[in-house]
Design brief:
Layout lengths: L2 H20 L6 E5 L3 H8 L7 H10 L2 H4 L5 E2 L6 H4 L26 E2 L3 E9 L5 E7 L22 E5 L7 E8 L5 E10 L5 E9 L6 H5 L8 H7 L32 H31 L3
Helix pairs in contact: 1-8
């Protein structure tokens, strides 16, 4: 192979590394307010969950689903969520990796809510253009039975929010209206991208009160993952946690209804390092080529 072709091959390989790094997909977020099942269990700690339901989740599916808390997705949903996700598999998006999220039980940590205008917070780790739609269960919902599409008030979403390619301080924060309900219910999230067929899903247990045992449920209110926890666990995740802050300006405090700060821009730094490597490899190749040309010229 000629030196010219070798240099071209090296350049192509290095460029491929850059493209791969820049195009790496990743998980892209979860409800933090109300808190999703997976975020609540991850907040307890994958290696030492506190609640029985989160212990059972780990016993069933291991710890990796919790480290990948923001990855409950279907890559080719393309607006067909109701057609491709069967009843009983809504919380897992019909993915075996997340099957424990479909457990029908009454001890999932639940966020206390009330009817009326409500602020929702979605911790986004990779902003995308799309539509975030939230549904709430019907008044006859039974949490001891697997969640079905017919359990949701599909005709009346509690919130619909057009998501953009930026996320202020790492969150999508938007308003919706919860209807009158009592007791334990569930908020179901469908985030369908409009720049890709990909969609993301989540189940957040909520408690409207007004029933016997409400005080006991309130004692099991969910926590949310901290940014320190995300940073410490980044190496154990197969998903990317570093796309969250793309709004202009310095990183600021999280929304008032949440208790977290922002994610770092480590993906940008990584791409910068790869870019430097590409430039360095290219420069070294040119220098080597010139030396070979010089050596090949007769004295």
């Amino acid at each position: 192979m000629s030196w010219t072709r070798r240099l071209l091959a090296v350049g192509a390989l290095t460029a491929g590394v850059v493209v791969t790094a820049a195009g790496s997909a990743g998980a892209h977020g979860s409800l933090y307010g109300p808190t999703s099942r997976i975020a609540a269990c991850y907040a307890e700690g994958p290696e030492h969950p506190q609640s029985q339901v989160c212990k059972d989740l780990v016993a069933m599916s291991g710890t990796q689903p919790l480290y990948d808390w923001n990855e409950v997705n279907i890559a080719d949903a393309n607006g067909r969520s109701r057609q491709i996700i069967p009843d009983g598999k809504l919380c897992s998006a019909n993915r075996d990796k997340y099957k424990a999220l479909d457990m029908a039980r009454t001890d999932w940590p639940a966020t206390t809510v009330k009817a009326g205008v409500t602020t929702f917070n979605f911790r986004v780790t990779a902003p995308h253009q799309g539509v975030m739609t939230l549904y709430v269960t019907n008044s006859g919902y039974n949490p001891t039975q697997p969640l079905k599409w017919s359990d949701l008030d599909l005709a009346h979403p509690v919130a619909e929010y057009a998501t953009g390619r930026t996320a202020t301080n790492g969150y999508y924060t938007f308003s919706g209206t919860l209807p009158s309900r009592t007791g334990r219910q569930l908020v179901y999230q469908v985030w369908q991208r409009t720049d890709s067929p990909e969609a993301f899903y989540g189940c957040a247990d909520v408690d409207f009160g007004g029933t016997a045992g409400a005080a006991a449920l309130a004692a099991a209110a969910p926590g949310n993952p901290t940014e320190q926890q995300l940073a410490a666990d980044a190496g154990r995740s197969t998903a990317r946690h570093d796309h969250g802050v793309t709004a202009a300006g310095a990183q600021a405090a999280a929304p008032a209804s949440a208790s977290f700060t922002t994610a770092s821009a480590s993906s940008t730094a990584m791409l910068g390092v790869v870019g430097i490597a590409l430039v360095s490899a290219g420069a070294s190749g040119v220098l080597l080529y010139r030396r070979m040309r010089t050596a090949a010229v007769p004295a």
